[in-house]
């Protein structure tokens, strides 16, 4: 028929004009503009190379995984630079004019990236390292960027970034932990394990040949201190521009003269020293136990010791007045200082401690120091997150639907608030309401990776594996918080008093999932599932007595969920045995009993599960990055969605 082509064409045209396609496009545009990173609660700085300050504006930059957080300490406002390569940021430094930020990253074939701070976008990158970058720095004349690889990479590169040429390069033979440029940009100094080296740039010109010249290096004359670990370095400023100041991990502050000779040194009287920052009239040394000591650069004369931060294990909600913090007789151990950076504009000193806390001190008068900003974060990996349910009426602890809970390998449960509250209850953190310390061991609050001169040892690792809270769950009425740790211990806290009301050794291995039954089921049950292949069902109304133990799974159980549908109470569980079990509750003389109604097996590990609002379907996140939808009544798979755009990783939550 002659009209056929026309009708098909017109139908296609009408279809393209149809509102559903336009709406889909609009919807995608809306999503990208809506989903933005608002705030990062955490810091992954492991040394002095991971903290830097804009010398013009006082903006602070530190790494949080593959994100650089740009913090305005006065307004407590964050902006973010997101590393598109998804590699963790290890080192960063502002340009002298504050317009650019250079970052180094970890992982295979890492890049040194240059970012425009105002627009928060990448403007250049250098890929000359193989195994991770440990230090980066801008020269004061803004011409060069120097980057030093980690102890497996061992490369030192000098990059004329405006012309995108590596002008000089060389190798180092030891682990380098610090780098600093001289004031006139003619040389820079690297320090590390038994290593202080001066590198000269006089002959470095961006040549047309594009082959980097060998970088000229001369060792510092260390004398009797040659066996020390030099953890940080800073070249002198102003009248002391000929001198170079270094700090050793054993706690010595050293000065090298213009002939590279060790001129004088002073004992910091501390167990370990890791970081150093310099102004024209003051040297700040970050030491153990929260101590920062200040010295005069002229003659290394001791000036003062700054106030210490909170003691480890302190109750955040109780520190409501500044006098609590500045009380000099603080009992207990404080975290070690691992990074310090000085802001010459506001005359503030920012410190990062090895419990992943951050303080900004006002050091205009070093004998009368004030606190500008502070924040406390988890000191180890975060395992679980739970939002407080929307329950009518306020609880005593000031909890609402804008509060959420996190648990971590540092053996703490932390309660955070989402909205910025003007009347902050405590002075240590604007975001943190309370920390629940699960056992009295404060050692889990310290990050072992933050010690510069220790390699990652096996025994630290094994101790860390056993510590930590693996999963948490808040009861639907908002009264109880259940938590499971990595030894199989179940604990329940009363949220109105924050007291522990139950502690029971529920499993032989780590608890991987906790779930309270919803009010619409008519039951108040708590299900605990573990790596030991068992599910325990407890009665939350009858002081958590055991109702039933289920042992059908043959491997770790990753998720358990309750659902009320077809006037029946169901329990669904899935795990690493690639099975998903559907059970139905039956009333018996002994109480409630769950019996198996369906059992499905898939070809991939099932990591997490969520039940939809109508309780008809369960969505399961799988190792092959797919989301499988099951009908809860029949146990049959209804749909399969691709859960990821890329071809790597697994769908975990």
TrEMBL record:
What SMART domains does the database record attribute to this sequence? Answer: WD40
Please name the GO terms that the record assigns under molecular function.
kinase activity
Q: Which InterPro entries match?
A: MABP1 (IPR055292), WD40/YVTN_repeat-like_dom_sf (IPR015943), WD40_MABP1-WDR62_1st (IPR056161), WD40_MABP1-WDR62_2nd (IPR056162), WD40_repeat_dom_sf (IPR036322), WD40_rpt (IPR001680)
Pfam families of this UniProt entry? WD40_MABP1-WDR62_1st, WD40_MABP1-WDR62_2nd
Q: Which residue range or ranges hold the MABP1/WDR62 second WD40 domain?
A: 382-653
User: Could you tell me which residue ranges the MABP1/WDR62 first WD40 domain spans?
Assistant: 50-376
Going by the UniProt record, its keywords in alphabetical order are: Kinase, Repeat, Transferase, WD repeat
Keyword Acetylation part of the UniProt annotation: no
Q: What's the protein name?
A: Mitogen-activated protein kinase-binding protein 1
Q: Which organism is it from?
A: Ilyodon furcidens (goldbreast splitfin)
The organism that produces this protein has a lineage beginning with: Eukaryota, Metazoa, Chordata, Craniata, Vertebrata
């Amino acid at each position: 028929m002659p009209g056929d082509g026309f009708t098909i064409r017109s139908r296609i045209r009408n279809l393209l004009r149809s509102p559903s396609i336009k709406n889909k496009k609009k919807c995608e545009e809306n999503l990208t503009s809506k989903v933005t990173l608002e705030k990062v609660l955490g810091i992954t700085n492991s040394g002095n190379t991971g903290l830097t300050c804009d010398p013009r504006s006082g903006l602070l930059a530190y790494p949080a995984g593959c994100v650089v957080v740009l913090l305005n300490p006065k307004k407590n406002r964050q902006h973010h630079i997101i590393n598109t390569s998804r590699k963790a940021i290890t080192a960063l430094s502002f340009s002298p004019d504050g317009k650019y930020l250079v970052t180094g990253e970890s992982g295979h074939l890492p890049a040194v990236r240059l970012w425009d701070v105002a627009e928060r976008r990448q403007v250049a990158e250098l890929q000359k390292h193989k195994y991770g970058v440990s230090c980066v720095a801008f020269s004061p004349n803004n011409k060069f960027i120097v980057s030093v690889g980690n102890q497996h990479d061992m490369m030192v590169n000098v990059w004329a970034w405006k012309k995108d040429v590596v002008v000089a390069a060389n190798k180092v033979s030891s682990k380098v932990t610090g780098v600093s440029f001289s004031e006139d940009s003619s040389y820079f100094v690297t320090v590390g394990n038994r290593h202080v080296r001066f590198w000269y740039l006089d002959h470095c010109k961006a040549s047309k040949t594009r082959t980097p010249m060998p970088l000229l290096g001369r060792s510092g004359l260390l004398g009797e201190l040659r066996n020390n670990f030099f953890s940080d370095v800073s070249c002198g400023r102003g009248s002391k521009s000929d001198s170079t100041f270094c700090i050793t991990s054993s706690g010595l502050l050293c000065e090298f003269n213009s002939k590279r000779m060790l001129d004088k040194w002073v004992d910091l009287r501390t167990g370990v020293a890791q970081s150093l920052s310099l102004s024209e009239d003051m040297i700040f040394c970050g030491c153990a136990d929260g101590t920062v000591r200040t010295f005069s650069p002229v003659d290394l004369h001791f000036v003062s010791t700054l106030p210490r931060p909170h003691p480890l294990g302190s109750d955040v909600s109780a520190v409501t007045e500044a006098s609590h913090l500045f009380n000099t007789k603080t009992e207990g151990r404080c975290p070690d200082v691992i990074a310090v950076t000085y802001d010459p504009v506001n005359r503030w000193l920012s410190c990062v401690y090895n419990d992943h806390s951050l303080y900004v001190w006002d050091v205009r008068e070093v004998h009368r120091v004030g606190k500008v900003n502070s924040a406390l974060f988890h000191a180890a990996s975060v395992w679980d997150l739970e939002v407080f349910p929307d329950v009518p009426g306020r609880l005593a602890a000031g909890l609402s639907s804008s509060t959420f809970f996190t648990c971590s390998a540092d053996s703490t449960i932390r309660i955070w608030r989402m909205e910025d509250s003007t009347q902050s209850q405590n002075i240590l953190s604007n975001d943190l309401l309370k920390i629940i310390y699960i056992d009295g061991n404060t050692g889990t609050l310290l990050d072992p990776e933050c010690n510069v001169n220790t390699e990652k040892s096996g025994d630290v690792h094994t101790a860390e594996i056993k510590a930590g809270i693996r999963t948490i769950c808040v009861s639907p009425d908002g009264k109880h918080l259940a938590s499971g740790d990595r030894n199989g211990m179940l604990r329940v806290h009363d949220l109105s008093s924050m007291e522990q009301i139950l502690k029971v050794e529920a499993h032989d291995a780590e608890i991987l999932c906790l779930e309270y039954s919803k009010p619409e089921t008519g039951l108040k049950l708590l299900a605990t599932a573990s790596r030991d292949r068992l599910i325990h069902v407890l009665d939350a109304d009858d002081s958590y007595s055991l109702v039933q133990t289920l042992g059908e799974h043959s491997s770790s159980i990753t998720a358990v969920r309750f659902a009320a549908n077809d006037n029946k109470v169901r329990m669904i569980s899935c795990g690493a045995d690639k099975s998903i079990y559907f059970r139905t509750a039956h009333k018996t003389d002994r109480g409630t009993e769950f019996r198996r109604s369906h059992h499905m097996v898939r070809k991939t590990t099932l990591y997490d599960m969520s039940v939809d609002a109508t309780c008809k379907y369960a969505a399961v996140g799988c190792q092959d990055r797919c989301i499988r939808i099951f009908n809860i009544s029949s146990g049959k798979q209804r749909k399969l969605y691709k859960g990821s755009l890329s071809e790597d990783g697994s769908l975990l939550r």
